[in-house]
Amino acid sequence: MTRTSRLWHPNTQMSEWSGFAKIVRARGMHLIDSDGNRMIDGVASMWCNVWGHSRPELVRAMREQAARLQHSPVFNLTHGPAERLADELVRLSPGMHRTFFSDNGSSAMEIAIKIAIQYWHNAGAKQKTRIASLKKGYHGDTFGAMSAGYIPGFFSRFKRQLFDVVQVPTPDVYHWPGSVTESECAKLCLDAAQETLEKDEKIGALIMESGAQVAGGVIIYPESFQKRLGNICRRHGVLLVLDEVATGFGRLGAMVQYRAQKNAPDIVAYGKMLTGGYLTLAATLTTKKVYESFLGSYDQNRHLFHGHTYTANPIASAVAVENLEMYRRHGLIKKIQKTSKMLGGYADAFRELDAVGDVRHKGMLMGIELVSDRRTRKPVSSKKSINKTIFEIGRKNGVYLRTLGNVVMIVPPLAISEGHLRQLVLRTRRTIEEAGF
Ligand SMILES: *Cc1c(COP(=O)(O)O)cnc(C)c1O
After folding, report:
1. 113 lines ligand 1 (CB under 6 A)
2. DSSP H/E element including 343
3. Does residue 103 have its Cβ closer than 6 Å to ligand 1?
4. Ligand 1: which residue has its CA nearest to atom 8?
5. CA distance 340 to 343
6. Using one digit for the tens of pLDDT, what is the confidence trace for 46-94?
7. What element of type H or E holds 326?
8. Distance in Å, CA 277 to ligand 1 centroid
9. Best of 45, 46, 106 for a ligand 1 pocket test (most atoms within 8 Å of beta carbon)
């Protein structure tokens, strides 16, 4: 532990912490602190690490690019890494035609929202300015993203400043009042969405995470839910905007999650794993139809009014290009499909624990919900944050964990070996047991 510095930590009650473990380096699956303690990175350094830390190919890609060109904008100019990456992302993403870069997932979603609104403006349907989204969805911490992904526990203080979003229910089977099957729950949600879109002609876009809601507590969509919701959007002339910031690039077991969902968005956003977890970069992609609505003569003002200083940074783009090549070279998605089965196989080992109410798993993502009463599903309570309790015991057990409220997350680097995954799971299980909720 080091004395607290002037650093203000994110989403943290600072008075709860007298100091923080200081990470001085990281190798493979391990974070190593200033006392030499090693922790398995159980949350892939906020869900973004793919290959583990200090991977030589990625470090080399960054070093080589850094020596040649560190930053040069794509305002009036272009450069190789950004062009290669833009093309590669379009190639990977069925139906997509253009890539717009930003430097974090929240911005990628802000851009998605702006594109959707301006699309309707350009198309002459200026009244279609309203956004719909799924309850419990999360799209980032900036104002547009908070509006679209409104989680009251996180954002209620800012509610007055957020723009109005129409929310439709999410198929959260575990927390549904009364008991429903997955398919009944999906049907109820789809019927509600259908009714909402039918009633409100001002809705221009529906925004949702692709495949599962992660920050909302690991809520995995029932089979065909996303596809059917996409069909409802299409029938009502509403753009479908997918957020794959957390769930794309293999996290749920497929390179492009919407492809696995047999779903066709108009706009999609990527982030987190794009650079293998090494630098900050995000992308927003659109179809040809959406892109072409922005074309016209200059004085028509149809072009996209958006740009960031570090848009398409060359070093970040170069490491992303290398990362995507590595997915191919190492057949990562195939490997994940195998490791994912192993992770799923551990669900019962968590369910045995009294404090565990539910375990949800897909791909390389697992959420373990801690409850004080299995029947009422009431969350465990503690005076300290649950996160801090679990983090501290985890640290002692050699694993880095960060919970989401009462949900313990297992979000390992995607390329984790079966041996390390077993260690991660067993240490996490022991940590929950020792927390004694
Ligand atoms: C993390 C996340 C974001 C925000 O990305 P940042 O890079 O943290 O701004 C947006 N959407 C989803 C689904 C996320 O998980």
Report:
1. no
2. helix 332-345
3. no
4. 105
5. 5
6. 999 999 999 999 999 999 999 999 999 999 999 999 999 999 999 999 9
7. helix 314-329
8. 13
9. 106
Ligand 1 atom with the smallest distance to the CA of 149 is: 11
Angle (CA) 302-305-308 rounded to 5° is 150
Which ranges of 79-237 would DSSP assign to H, the alpha helix? 80-92, 105-122, 143-148, 152-155, 182-199, 225-235
Helices (H), 98-223: 105-122, 143-148, 152-155, 182-199
Q: Is the CB of 243 under 6 A from ligand 1?
A: yes
Q: What is residue 382's predicted lDDT score, i.e. its pLDDT?
A: 81
CA-based radius of gyration for the chain: 22
How many whole angstroms separate alpha carbon 370 and alpha carbon 434? 13
From its phi and psi, is residue 95 left (phi > 0), alpha (psi between -120 and 50) or beta? left
**Contact by Cβ (8 Å): 407, 43:** no
Q: Whose CA is nearest to atom 10 of ligand 1?
A: 139
Closest ligand 1 atom number to CA of residue 247? 13
User: How many CA atoms are closer than 13 Å to the CA of 195, on its beta-carbon side?
Assistant: 9
Residue 86, ligand 1, Cβ within 6 A: no
Digit-coded pLDDT (tens) for 362-391: 999 999 999 999 999 999 988 889 999 999
Per-residue pLDDT tens digits for 217-241: 999 999 999 999 999 999 999 999 9
Residue 116 above 70 pLDDT? Answer: yes
